[in-house]
């Protein structure tokens, strides 16, 4: 995996060329370090990004040709394949027919060679044990066959590492095997190389489960679509369908592309996108997403995005990209491993030479102990423990409709002590409706005309309350509005037929000086009912319109769950305090703050941070953008249909289910616990065998078995995150 969080990645010039390579043999920090060391001082290389989980290397450069990069990697024995090259797009096209999938498939030839290696290694041990001679020609012959069939690839990598002065695990293992052969431990050398090669195969297969967890989502999108072409319905490849094409979906079929329903209705299972367990009704005008399942009815829809830009594709692409960013724990582990290897190697050298030189001890036993230390110096279990856990966590979240934009947020979610939630569209459904139309001061006869004026102004605004007023008017055309202006956190104003009108909330009426005792009483009464009241005014109040929203289903259960997790919940809204308190009371929030402008929300985030520490902000990803950016973690609700939220939020909740908030925190805490377990397991095994090696009680094969065993333990432990999370109870 990764090197730095996005904010800390060295800047690359905007005009730099970009080369993306798939390297199937690059799945461990060993290869990453080898490549970094090789390219570190190479002229023209401006930056590199490693995605070990996808086995991809991105090179930013200013070279005239990328042949030098490809050849350098080939000399390292890594066999790169060009996925994309900004200098020569046809070069990438040449490789389109290649299977650039990062899936790990072990060739039959390798299985046969490993079988021969295992059988001959065991046979070598058996012959040596029964004859009592570890250097007889049958023992040596069997051991050589085992080493050459099972360990030739490791020895080649070790030689490449030596040429580039890289202390990686292949070099250390090769040195240990050669050292064992040099002192006559042929059977042990054979068993060691076989165990190492076998464990590497198992580890690679295990890592693929995490690697492919998110890619499995893409398999949910059908390859073909039923498209209307010149009045007839035809089966076309989904990748060839263009925007604005009309697609038909029959009962039981998966939706091939994103779009908007134009005819028909149905219920659709949106679990692949949002994680919702219940099907959602879809009618004309509703958005539809690729990969979702049409359950009952048939409908036609107009395509709004090509296959590569569907919501599902962007989710998968986003998770794959953030796999290339190191989480805090991984940066710590990588730094530790950087010093750990040379320290243990130096210790091994001292163990090999000091006792014979200073204490006249026999050389061979101490050299053997040093070889065991070299095996212990391999940090594979330690460095692999973090990425497999983080990637499993990111994939598990994405499959449940929670898009986490990097391992840093997965790790830090456990620290959340307070959450600030916007009201409209977050705690409430965001679909308010007009409940009251009340003319002011003898304007009852003009109620319809005044409502038409209010709807004309509201039609120009994107606020949910304004939208409710606009759609409520169904009696005729709207007035033309000139000089329209949005008044942040208060309302709007504009000119109709040369006369200036304001349409806004209680705060705006105060600012205009229009609040009298009668108007205050009306507004106060409506607000105490949990309604949002807005007023139309010219040089005086003309009309009061009340709008009511409903809280989200299971919202109260989610708030209760957050409290059980020790998270303080605050509601921040630009609505009036009475309405804020009424809505907050329905879901069990005690701290509700109303009449907040965008700057007030920023100050509220600062205050919550000072009081609680780590703070998250939950909003719609657009109107709450400043507060989302200010918080330690910004959550965007209902992000499936919002490009902005998918791109800018730290965590995007693909639907409007508040229960995903406690689910995210539980996942983060679970991931942290597994990270701690993995690091503890890896270090504990190292320390135990370090002590055993110094005491002379550890053998080479025991050290290899323990090291590779530890690697497998941490891999499978990390994969536990892919298991289902406990759902939030609705009761």
What can you tell me about this protein's structure?
It catalyses: Zn(2+)(in) + ATP + H2O = Zn(2+)(out) + ADP + phosphate + H(+); Cu(+)(in) + ATP + H2O = Cu(+)(out) + ADP + phosphate + H(+). It is a multi-pass membrane protein. Keywords: ATP-binding, Cell membrane, Copper, Copper transport, Ion transport, Membrane, Metal-binding, Nucleotide-binding, Translocase, Transmembrane, Transmembrane helix, Transport. The chain crosses the membrane at residues 111-130, 136-155, 339-358, 370-397, 674-694, 700-719. GO terms for molecular function: ATP binding; ATP hydrolysis activity; cadmium ion transmembrane transporter activity; metal ion binding; P-type monovalent copper transporter activity; P-type zinc transporter activity. The structure is a single chain. This protein is of the alpha+beta class and 731 residues long. The chain folds into five domains: 6-94, 2-Layer Sandwich (Alpha-Beta Plaits), CATH 3.30.70; 107-194, no CATH class; 222-309, Calcium-transporting ATPase, cytoplasmic transduction domain A, CATH 2.70.150.10; 399-429 and 551-665, Rossmann fold (3-Layer(aba) Sandwich), CATH 3.40.50.1000; 433-548, Calcium-transporting ATPase, cytoplasmic domain N. It contains 25 helices and 26 strands. The strands form five sheets. Strands 14-26-25-24-15-22-23 form a seven-stranded mixed beta sheet, sandwiched between helices. A hairpin with a 2-residue loop joins β18 (491-496) and β19 (499-504). α18 packs parallel to α20. The longest helix has 36 residues, at 660-695. The radius of gyration is 32 Å and the shape is elongated. The model is unreliable at 1-9, 91-102 and 727-731 (pLDDT under 50).
């Amino acid at each position: 995996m990764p090197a730095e969080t996005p904010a800390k990645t060295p800047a690359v010039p905007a005009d730099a060329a970009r080369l993306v390579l798939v390297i199937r043999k690059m799945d461990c920090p060993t290869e990453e370090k080898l490549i970094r060391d090789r390219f570190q001082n190479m002229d023209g290389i401006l930056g590199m990004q490693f995605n070990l989980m996808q086995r991809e290397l991105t090179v930013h450069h200013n070279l005239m040709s990328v042949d030098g990069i490809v050849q350098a990697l080939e000399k390292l024995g890594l066999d790169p394949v060009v996925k994309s090259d900004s200098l020569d797009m046809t070069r990438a096209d040449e490789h389109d027919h290649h299977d650039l999938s990062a899936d790990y498939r072990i060739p039959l030839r390798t299985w046969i060679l490993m079988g021969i290696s295992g059988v001959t290694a065991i046979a070598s041990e058996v012959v040596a044990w029964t004859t009592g001679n570890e250097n007889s020609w049958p023992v040596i012959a069997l051991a050589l066959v085992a080493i050459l069939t099972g360990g030739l690839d490791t020895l080649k990598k070790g030689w490449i590492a030596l040429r580039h002065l890289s202390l990686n695990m292949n070099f250390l293992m090769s040195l240990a095997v050669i050292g064992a052969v040099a002192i006559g431990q042929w059977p042990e050398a054979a068993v060691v190389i076989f165990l190492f090669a076998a464990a590497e195969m198992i580890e690679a297969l295990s890592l693929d489960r995490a690697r492919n967890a998110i890619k499995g989502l893409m398999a949910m999108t059908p390859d073909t679509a039923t498209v209307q072409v010149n009045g007839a319905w035809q089966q076309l490849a989904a990748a060839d369908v263009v925007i604005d094409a009309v697609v038909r979906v029959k009962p039981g079929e998966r939706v091939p592309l994103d779009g908007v329903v134009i005819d028909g209705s149905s219920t659709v299972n949106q679990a692949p996108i949002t994680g919702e367990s219940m099907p959602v009704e879809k009618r004309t005008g509703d958005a539809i997403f690729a990969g979702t399942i049409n359950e009952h009815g048939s409908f036609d829809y107009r395509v709004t995005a090509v296959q590569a830009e569907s919501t599902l594709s962007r989710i998968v692409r986003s998770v794959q990209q953030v796999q290339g960013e190191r989480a805090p724990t991984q940066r710590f582990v990588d730094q530790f491993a950087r010093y750990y290897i040379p320290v243990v190697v130096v210790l091994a050298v001292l163990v090999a030479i000091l006792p014979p030189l200073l204490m006249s001890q026999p050389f061979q036993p101490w050299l053997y102990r040093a070889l065991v230390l070299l095996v212990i110096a391999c940090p594979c279990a330690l460095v692999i423990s973090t990425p497999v856990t983080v990637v499993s966590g990111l994939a598990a979240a994405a499959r449940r409709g929670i898009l986490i934009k990097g391992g840093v947020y997965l790790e830090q979610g456990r620290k959340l002590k307070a959450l600030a939630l916007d009201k409209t569209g977050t705690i409430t459904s965001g679909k308010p409706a007009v409940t009251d139309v009340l003319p002011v001061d003898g304007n009852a006869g003009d109620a319809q005309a005044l409502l038409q004026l209010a709807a004309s102004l509201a039609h120009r605004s994107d606020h949910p309350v304004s939208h409710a007023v606009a759609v409520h008017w169904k009696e005729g055309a709207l007035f033309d509005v000139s000089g329209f202006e949005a008044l942040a956190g208060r309302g709007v104003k504009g000119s109709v037929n040369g006369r200036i009108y304001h349409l806004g909330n209680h705060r705006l009426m105060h600012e205009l000086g229009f609040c009298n005792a009668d108007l205050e009483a009306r507004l106060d009464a409506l607000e105490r009912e949990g309604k949002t009241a807005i007023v139309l005014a010219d040089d005086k109040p003309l009309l009061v319109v009340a709008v009511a929203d409903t809280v989200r289903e299971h919202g109260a259960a989610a708030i209760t769950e957050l409290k059980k997790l020790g998270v303080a919940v605050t509601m921040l809204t630009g609505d009036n305090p009475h309405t804020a308190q009424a809505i907050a009371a329905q879901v069990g929030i005690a701290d509700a703050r109303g009449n907040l402008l965008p700057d007030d929300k920023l100050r509220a985030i600062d205050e919550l941070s000072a009081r609680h520490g780590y703070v998250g902000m939950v909003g719609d990803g657009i109107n709450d953008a400043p507060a989302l950016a200010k918080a330690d973690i910004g959550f965007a609700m209902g992000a499936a249909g919002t490009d902005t939220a998918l791109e800018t939020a730290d965590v995007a909740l693909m639907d409007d289910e508040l229960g995903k908030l406690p689910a995210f925190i539980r996942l983060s805490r679970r991931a942290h616990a597994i990270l701690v377990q993995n690091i503890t397991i890896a270090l504990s095994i190292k320390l135990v065998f370090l002590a055993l090696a110094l005491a002379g009680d550890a053998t080479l094969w025991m050290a290899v078995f323990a090291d590779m065993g530890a690697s497998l333990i941490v891999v499978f432990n990390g994969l536990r995150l892919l298991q289902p999370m406990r759902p939030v109870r609705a009761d």
